[in-house]
Every structure is written in structure tokens, then in C-alpha cells.
Amino acid sequence: MDFYYGLAQTVGIHTLLGLSAYIVLLTGQVTLAQAAFFAIGAYAAGMLTVLAGWHIVPALGASAMFGAATACAVGFPALRVKGLMLVVATLAFGEGVRLFFFNFDYQVAKGEIKVGPLGGEGFRQIRYFQEHGWSTGEVMLFVWVFVVLAMAALWWLDRSRYGAVLRAVGEDELAAQSVGVNLTAVKVSAMTVGGAVAGIGGGLYAHYTTHIEHANFNVLLATFAIAYPIVGGLKNVFGTLAAVIFVQAFLIEGLRFLGDWRNLLFGALIVAAMNLRPQGFLGGRRA
Amino acid sequence: MGAGVLELKGLSRHFGGIKAVDGLDLTVRQGEIVGLIGPNGSGKSTTVNVIAGLFPVTSGEVRFNNESLEGLPTHKRLQRGIARTFQNIRLFGQLSVWQNLWVAQNAPEDHARRGFIARWLGGQSGVRAEIAQLLEFSGLAHKQDELAANLAFGEQRRLELARALAAKPKLLLLDEPAAGMNSEEIGQLRDRILKLRAQGITILLIEHVMELVMGVTDRIAVLNFGQKIAEGRPAEIQADPLVRKAYLGGA
User: N or C: which end of chain A has fewer CB within 10 A?
Assistant: First the structure.
């Protein structure tokens, strides 16, 4: 049973990661910075529960704030460029953040041992759940409370006027500004919301794995973040969830019995999925 | 007629060595419909794009209600009261007709009347009546839930006009609104333009279709190679030898 709980946690956390890219993709921007916001959320929440002794819920709130603040700060310069230039700019930012954590030491003595991030060794012993005696099932439910809240919030945002404005900007920036839309405000705010969602996802990830290090937050993770909403389709938030289940539960776990052949089939199946459903699983606009 | 609403003073816009618009002076007064005509490539669309703030001026000035628009981005010019349509229709194709008008609810009055949260997140309440009115005006009420991309060509033109009106503009820049329309549709467009004038909206009309330009405008300015070669009443322009030469070649 623990295996399925663990899988459900992974699906939940990756759904948060995918949703953080979903809202930015609605505005037509392709960003590779989501893994960096996820990393910032992970380190922030871990440090707050382990070093400062915070409860997990306010720590996740702080993760969301750190993720959002960084995304907002990055958004202003980065969103001045478009298309491939934005991909390169956010990629550089993501790698910069990863290298920051590669060099980031902040250890504090806690009884016999020292805890906290230790550069390339990573940040071990983020044991909030274990120390407080949470069962795997409880942790899984806790993760999914945040997933459901994030999905509900984004669903509502999507159906508000703001959602229509995001999609309008994604379709035609020139027309959008000609009907009075402030492009900078719309793009930066979408990036900020995405940063908050990624921050929460990262905070949950840190406590679920108990050990994080810079290599967890590499370009591959950033690519997954945008792959989920693109494979799932941008019609609504459930596309992202469907794509995460397809990738994490079916391609990664379900095909484990294939051994080394899995990696080969993994790529082939993603390509097949994109060819069979170019609009994504749940249809909607082409990304 | 009051003071000039829109004043172009020595307006120039060059692209490298090409002088798309070169030293254009033009005044459009409150409540007027002014036509801007000229052969292809004479700088008409560039003029609209410069007024709307898509390109900066190379030299010269655009003034609106006695204020310079220098450096104002497009969305701020819209809030000052300048709305436009595009020569090649630019709707939000994957949004519904209704949503196209919803996104365009950016009139300056709305900023004062509705708070930030209500304006951006307030669901669909509060603007229903205004959108219904726009749908009625453009004869698209029965298509409100259709995706804009699925509309017929003439309907798309009507929707684009309605979308420009959603911001309650004082000045409307129409960039070839009759292109590709049949003569019945042109007649309906003429009626709509005259209705807008009756509401006090000033209009700068760029058009090739003489049937429309000659029928609705108070004055016409003619561009050729970025320069104004004539200005006057429709009848005067029709008789002008320079204009005939520009359009028909040196026959």
C-alpha cells in the first residue's frame, strides 16, 4: 500500500509543478524557470521546519511567498523577451539557482549533529513528518489537500476575466494590448502565481523525500514542468493532472517491468501521445 | 466643432531608408469622420499604428485632446480613448465571441467604477449588460458562445468593431473595415459608422472602398509615398487631378 501512497504523493507534487507552468503557458510564454521556484520553495520550507522549528503549514506558506517573490522579480526583466530568448533567459536563471544551492552552506548544530543545507552534499534530514509521527497515508492526504486547493484556485482563476485575459495574451499580444491589456502586468502576475504554486510543490517535495540536493532541480525537472501542461493540453487544469498520471504512473512506474527498454519506450510513447493528441489529452488550444 | 481631438504634427515614421510616413500634418476634429486614403504602401496603416502606439514616431508629434502621446504605451492610449481595428482581423480566435468582448472591458470609466479585484477577477457579473448591448449593436447576440475563429468573415469584422467599442473610445481608428465585404455588408457598415458618429465618437477611417469613404466622410486626406497630397471634401477629392494621377498612374 505504501507504494501507492508514495506514487500518489509523487503525482500530487508533480501536478503542482506542472500547474505552475500551466498558468504561464496560458499567456503563450515558455519558461524553464519553474524548477528553480520549486527548488527555492523546497529549501525555504526545509530550513524553516528543520532550523527554525516551524509548523509545516506556515512553512509552506513561506515557500509560496518566496517562490512568488522570486518569480515576480525574475518576471520583469525576463518577460521583456519572447519565444526562444525567454527560454534561454529562464534556463540561465534556473541553472543559476541550482548552482547557488550547489554552493549554499547553512548548517546549525542541533544536539549531536549539524543540520541544514551543505552545498553539494545537499540538505539531509528534513524529517518533519517522521518526527511528528505522520503515516504515509496522512502525508499523502496532506499533499493532496494542497493539490486540490491549487487546482480549485487555478480553475476559478481560469474562469474569471483574468483567465480570459491570459488566454487573449497567449493568442495575440498585439491585439490584447490594443484592447487595453497591460502585457507586462498580465505576464508578470501569471509568472508570480506560477512561482507561488511551484514554491508549495517544492516545500512538499522536500518533506516527502527528506533529502534534497541541487541535482534534483535540474533542466530535466524544468522540462517536465512544461511538458505536463503541453502533453495534457491547456483546456483546463485537469489536462495537466492527466499528463502527470500518464508520465509518472504509467510511463515511469507502470513500465518498470521492461527494465532498460523502458527509457526507450518512454520517449517513443511521449512522441506518440503528442502525435495522436497534438492539442493535448484534453484538447484546447495548441501550446 | 470644437478644438482638434487628434492632431498629427509633422509626423514621420521611417523604417531604415524607407519613409513610410513623412511629415504628415492632419487634424481630426471632435465628432468628425475623416477618411485617409491612398494607394497601397502609401503609409495609411503605419499612420494608424503610430497613433495607436505600436511604433514610436521617428519625428513629429501625435497630440490627443491637446496632450502629447509621446512615450505612452498602447494600452494607456486606449485608456485615453483611442481604440482601433486591424486591417487583417486580429480576434482572439479560441475565445468565444462573448469572451472577446469581456477581455476588452477596459474603459477608463470602469477603472473608476469597479475596484481592481472586481475588474480582474469579478467573474462575469457587472459587465453583462454592456456586452449584451455590444452584441446587439453588431448583430452577434445569437453567436455569443461561438468561438471567434468559427465566425464568418463579415461576422469577424463586426466582432472586431464591437471589441474596439468595448473601451468606450472617443476616437476610433478603423483600418480598412470594409476590405473583403460585399455591397450589402458595406451598406450595413456605413449605417453602423453613422450611428457611432451620432453617439459622438470621432472616426479616422482608412479605406480603399470608395463606395464607403465617399458616403460617410466629412473630409478626406490622401496619402502617397508617405506624404499628404490632398485634403478636402469628398467631392473635391474626387475631382482632384493629383489624386487621380496617384491612383491611376500618370495617364
Answer: N
- B156 with B191, same domain: the answer is no
> What is the domain partition of chain A in residue ranges?
2-218
For residue range B194-245, what is the model confidence (pLDDT) as tens digits?
999 999 999 999 998 888 999 899 999 999 999 999 999 999 998 888 888 8
Whether residues B186 and B238 share a domain: the answer is yes
Q: Is residue B113 predicted with pLDDT exceeding 60?
A: yes
Cβ neighbours of residue B68 closer than 8 Å, sequence gap 6 or more: B61, B62
Kindly give the interhelix angle for A136-159 and A183-209, rounded to the nearest 10 degrees: 170
A167 touches chain B (CB under 8 A): yes
pLDDT of residue B112: 67
For residues B107 and B46, membership in a common domain is answered with: no
Q: Residue B121 is part of which domain span? A: 93-162
Q: From the candidates A156, A178, A187, A188, which should be mutated to test the interface with B, based on the most B CB atoms within 10 A?
A: A178
Distance (Å, whole) CA B151 – CA A192: 35
A138 touches chain B (CB under 8 A): no
Residues of A in contact with B90 (CB under 8 A): 172, 174-175, 178
Q: pLDDT tier at A114 (50, 70, 90 boundaries)?
A: confident
pLDDT score, position A286: 45
A80 touches chain B (CB under 8 A): no
Q: Is residue B182 part of a domain?
A: yes
Do A164 and B119 lie within an 8 Å CB cutoff? no
With a cut of 80, say whether residue A157 has pLDDT above it: yes
Q: What is the pLDDT of residue A287?
A: 40
- Interatomic CA distance for residues B50 and B13, integer angstroms: 8
Asked whether residue B125 falls in the same domain as residue B153, the answer is yes
Distances (CA, A) of A4 to A1, A136, A208, A247: 5, 10, 14, 15
Shared-domain flag, residues B158 and B173: no
Residue B57 shares a structural domain with residue B98: no
ipTM above 0.95, yes or no: no
A127 and A209 Cβ atoms separated by less than 8 Å = no
User: Residue B93: what are its φ and ψ, rounded to 5°?
Assistant: -60, -35
pLDDT the model gives residue B1: 39
**CA-CA distance, A32 to A227, in Å (whole number)?**
10
- Give residue-wise pLDDT tens across range A69-106: 999 999 988 888 877 889 999 999 999 999 999 999 89
B222 domain-assigned: yes
Report yes or no on B241 lying in a domain.
yes
Are the C-beta atoms of A213 and A121 separated by less than 8 Å? yes
User: Are the C-beta atoms of residues A216 and A123 closer than 8 Å to each other?
Assistant: no
